[in-house]
Amino acid sequence: MSGFTLIELLAVIIILAIVALIATPIILDVVEDARISTGKSEAQMILGGINNYCATEDIKYQLDNNYTKICTTSLDANKVKEMVNLGNAE
């Protein structure tokens, strides 16, 4: 019969467990960094969309003085909620 002994199998399992213990925190940090980066990227896209909307609104206002603008020089949270449906985001 050929094969591995129980000691050899246990040694391999122990080595794999040690590698997993070392790699897990590294992988979890990468995942958390990716989440943070994704959140920042989405926030920048929302801000870009708001800026595009306000630029379009300025053009509409220039063409029609009766047009009511909701964009102002300073944005507050209430104005942003009027322009973008943020759902449950605060």
Topology:
Elements: H1 6-63, H2 77-83
Give a description of the structure.
- There is one protein chain.
- This protein has helices at 6-63, 77-83.
- The protein is mostly helical and 90 residues long.
- It has one domain (6-83).
- The longest helix has 58 residues, at 6-63.
- The model has no long low-confidence stretch (mean pLDDT 79).
Q: Cα distance, first to last residue?
A: 67 Å
Helix amount:
over 70%
Biggest sheet layout: none
Strand content: under 5%
Rg on CA atoms, Å: 28 Å
Q: Which residues sit in consecutive blocks of at least 5 with pLDDT less than 50? A: none
What would a concise description of this structure say?
The protein has 90 residues and is an all-alpha fold.
Please name the defining characteristics of this protein.
mainly alpha; 90 residues
